[in-house]
Task: structure prediction
Amino acid sequence: MARAKEPQIGTVKDGKVYRFTKAQVAAHWIHTVTFLLLLLTGLAIYVPATSWIGYLFGGIQIARIIHRVVALPYALFALLILLVGGGKPTKEWLKVTFTWKGEDIAFMPKYIVTEFMGRHADDLPEADFINAGEKVNSLLTIITLFTLSVSGLIMWFPNIFPSWLVLIAYPVHDLSWMFMTCMLMVHMFLSLIHPKMRAALKGITTGWVDEEFAKSHYPKWYRRVTGKDA
Amino acid sequence: MAKTMFIDTTKCMACRGCEVACKNWNDLEADIQPFNGSYQTKEDFATQTYTVVKMTEVVNNGRVDWIFGKRQCMHCTEAACIMVCPKNAIKRSPQGAVWIDHDLCIGCGYCVQNCPFGVPKLDTVNHKSTKCNLCVSRIENGLTPMCAKTCPPGAIMFGERQDMEVAAHKRLAVVKRTHPNATIYGNEEAGGTVLYILTEDPSVYGLPPHGTQVPWQVKFWQNFARPIGNIALGGTLVLLLVAAWFNYVQKPKEPPVHVEGGVK
Amino acid sequence: MTNHYIDFKNTDCALIIGSNAAENHPMSFKWLTEAREKRGAKIIHVDPRYTRTSVLSDIYAPMRSGTDIAFIGGLIKYAIDNKLYQYDYLVNYTNASFLVHPEYGFSDGMFTGYDPKTRKYDRTTWAYQTDENGNYKRDMTLQDPNCVFQIMKRHYDRYDVDTVCKITGTPKDLYLKVAEAYCATGAPDKTGTILYAMGTTQHTVGTQNVRSYAILQLLLGNTGLPGGGVNALRGESNVQGSTDMGLLQHLYPGYLNSAVATPAYATLADYHRTETPKSGYWVNKPKFMVSMLKAFYGPNATPENEFGYQWLPKRDPNRNYEHIALFEAMYEGVIKGLFLWGQNPVVGGPNSGKEAKAMENLDWLVVVDLWEHESAAFWKRPGVNPANIKTEVFFLPACGSFEKEGSISNSGRWAQWRWQAIAPKGDSRADLEIIHQLRNKIVEKYKGSTDPKDEPVLKMWWDYGTGSHPDIDKVAKEINGYDLTTGKQLSSFGLLKDDGTTVCGVWIYCGQYTEEGNMLKRRNTVDPGGVGNYLQWSFAWPLNRRIIYNRCSADPYGQPWAEDKANIWWDEAQGSWVGYDVPDFGVTTSPFSAGGQNAYIMRPEGVGCLYSACNEGPLPEHYEPWETPTGNILSSVNLNPVVKLWDTPMNDKGDVSRFPYVCTTYRVSEHWQAGAMTRNLPWLAEVMPYMFAEIGEDLAAELGIENGQKVVVSSARGEIECYALVTKRMQAMVVNGKKVHHVGLPWHYGFQGIATGATANNLTPHIGDGNTMIPEYKAFLVNIRGVK
Result:
């Protein structure tokens, strides 16, 4: 439920638009921290070339414990926060993530060869709340949350599950982290390194984004939530 | 160089000498179990038990029989445990012994879950996986494994792969005279490092069915999923490097200024 | 054994009866497996239970515990009726042709000459017929109604297959399979071997059980040949050595009978007269006896003092010195002190509850062993208050076989040297050292005494060096013997003299340590003929003969019966016997000379005896065990008529109405004897941690007992609680038209050690064989019930 004091999504103030709720911000960073810890400890456990990471955690056995301990908030907290504290904005996010139109599919290849590479695209389809690329990110994040959590649980307590299921859990876990990590690398590149998207970082930390940024990147959403013309 | 252990279950008398000799050589501890109504006092492999003589009473054509079969690691030539070990801690010796290097093992248990024969067991205290190592330090020095050395009726034989294959087939022909359903087990299933003569269905000995090999899930995981994932990770990295280059090294042209729209 | 372990590989058919060879003598199966593999040999297992031996056998025949004589008697009749006996062997090498006293008779289970008051037989009517010169009368055609063969034929005529199967509970088809397979070894080119152990001997008819195997083997011409023989799998690794060294109460070393305090043994001359037969190799007894006395008393033994004969203790003719008798005497308070040397009767003794109670009357107890076992701890056993027991207990720790040097004689009579691998732990010592130090201390106490009663102690000759541990070479050399005139070690007991010029501790071991050295240490694997005799691997008594009675391996003309069965043969050119073994015969005695067919040189008859007098008769007859579920259908005599009955407290007899099941005790591979050696070792405790009662699924269903449930097994002597092990491998047998169930109990368990459990022998009785008094551990009655 939204707090009385929290601004509405779409509120315009001082040249900024309110884009993310406090719940969404919290969920993002809890998810970030837990996923990164899981990734690092997972690499220490799983990939021989990155075994040295184990030393950062005080040894491989401690890394293994941390992996399991952190798996619980990873699986539950972000989910809980969004479901409990998310309200309408979360529902909208889910709806838009799972709604794919022709223009979303057209967005991807055009975007990668232009904006992504630092060039300008003339006729990029207009995005609503999030663009197609961000939809892929959201989709993968949600899907792998489930696949990693469930397969991880099965791997953690193999004796209570049928053998064939346990055996499937391993490749599922493996594929999940690898593809999510690909996504994470792109996500971090865009948010931290790519010149054009730095503005987005302010949004996921404070909740507010520059109005111009909102207008140019998410025109449909801007028009809808502010009522103004892009 | 490849060796084979040929276990002729028709000669076994379940004296358990192999069980004790194995514990002796590997310096394992006794782990007394509760009474289970059988002479087979160890139900399964355990962290301190690398080999168990399975003893099963059956009735064939109204006649009672007692089927013995020494269970141990199959030392597969294509070993699921080696494939799944994240630390490359499981190795194969030139003779064919599949053994776990405890200096590298972290006790993750992947080998335990993925072995089709249910062999490795996890020591959750010391975080190590344990199993029969075919007395690798002995065979690398030209000696025989302890179980083979101690077996009084010579049911456990050890020698060159070819010689043991020949012996197994010769023996099968003889056994088939009294047990027409006898089979050789271990060639198709594990590549022949360990061969059995069985007179009953493998399930009687606690073995998975004839033809069991590395589980398809493991093959899918190691031969398909991992490479795909690695390619994806590598590919993404390359993509990002290219993008970074285009974004910073090759300065982009200034985009035209539009009058309408929100593009700057 | 008449043969030896490796020789099993030469057999065509192995009959394992009264033995669970695979479980308790596993090495026997190394050789039996080879026999099966290389020669297609068949293995037959006859036993109340289907055991790990049965698994490896071609034929398994169930047999009620205690009915061996009926079982084998049926095979004897089968062989006779179907003319499967080896005729030439029978005529020439056995007493089949010997004529017996015309007044010999047998009727309704009894031979002629029985005195019911003394429970003894007068053997006069059993004697052979002799001519005026004292030579045995024989009918070589085997037709004379008084000849042994005809007597035997008549005797076993009652043992037809149907009657036998009624007694033993064996299904007829299986019995006939056994008969067909085993009696086929009567062919001259085939041999069968009989492997037996405590399942045979530990009965009130134990001796006659063995006799029946001997008869069958003689009939089939199997004794004295490779792959044949009557082969006891001895119950302990060095029990052969212990009986060889004379540790049985009625013997001196080398199976000389010990003297009794009667006029027949008053002097050494009397001893010679009483003990020495007129023919056979035992005519040399005086040489063995005197040489032994010289070993005992050294220079103190002179012709003038009968070589010290009067210093030997004599047995009281009215006392019984067997195990049961000793503990009965202890119970009565007659015996006040006890040495338990590698013995644990509180677990291993019959009626062990009574035996433990008997020990409470002791003033002192000395236990020599590796662990504080149940007998050492009898005074603090469950259910007993140590404050009520006055016995002073001494424990002398002994070390294990790897911690000391010495020889062990296996079942095949091979005495193999063992070297010390590590030093004994703590203050534990070799038995040899303990007895040496004990003796020295005792002699010290007697020093300076002039009392003639003390002479036996002071005149002992003990020349084994001055160290705390005796010089074992000196012991071994003395056992072998040496010539006092030359000072040289002797090479054969044929060189022993009765005039005091030779010393020999144990005549049968003469040859073990010659001038060439300690033969027991030899490890040469040369094997002429590939028959497995390995003549240069250690030494086998007597004189390194590996297969005794091996004259029988050659026909009356001195040629092997079959090339495949060659062991020794006569070489006319050399004028001697040659071959793959040391001849158990005069090396230069031609088969064509007088005595050339006397293959059994130790017998006065010179031949093997189908008919041979023991306490209960010259031929084995089936009697029921003391406690039996059924009457004897062969005669009205239920129990062996010569066994000693102990009508004493704590030894009640159980009746089938209260105790309906036949119980048998046995060993398992995983444990050793009374359990101290194995139940104290973690890896062995782990392979068989618990006491259990083995019962068939049918009996369990009848009584509502589940596998793994706790049960109470009871007999007229006591009760024990243990787990039930319910199995398909035991089923009810039909005996005399009635269903009879067996209950099986391993007897290894006691209250000490890592693996503990109830003691099976609390249920067994104080009653033993008619000749040896070995206890009837193998067939008694029990009841069993489940407990929640």
Q: What stands out?
A: The helical segments of chain B are 17-26, 80-84, 110-114, 136-139, 146-150, 161-178, 187-190, 216-249.
